[in-house]
Specification:
Blueprint: H1 2-27, E1 38-43, E2 47-48, E3 55-56, E4 60-66, E5 73-78, H2 79-90
Antiparallel strand pairs: 1-4, 2-3, 4-5
Helix pairs in contact: 1-2
The structure holds zinc ion.
Length: 97
């Protein structure tokens, strides 16, 4: 039975690693805090995920249009990374006064 719990812990560790990475990228400006103005999903064809820098080889790629005015850009994520990014960018972050 123990391996079931072990497996669960491993999954949590993986998600935590990703979350920390996304958090760091948000703080360093490599990922936007802005809400996407447009989100769409489509089958992946090997795009690079903006959050984890891995190729999105299978499943869905989430495409988000972020920014405003002349500075809009498409950002692409794994579905899981997209969810974590959404979650992390909504957390209150430190304001440097
Ligand atoms: Zn990813």
């Amino acid at each position: 039975m123990a391996w079931i719990f072990q497996r669960r812990v491993d999954m949590d560790d993986l998600t935590d690693d990703l979350r920390i990475r996304i958090h760091y990228k948000l703080e360093s400006g490599q990922l936007p805090y802005d809400s996407p103005t447009k989100v769409s999903g489509r089958p992946a064809t090997g795009e690079t995920c903006a959050a984890c820098d891995s190729a999105i080889g299978e499943g869905l790629v989430m495409e988000c249009l972020v920014g405003a005015g002349g500075r809009t850009a498409w950002v692409r994520f794994h579905v899981l990374c997209f969810e974590l990014w959404n979650d992390e960018r909504r957390q209150p972050h430190k304001q440097t006064a």
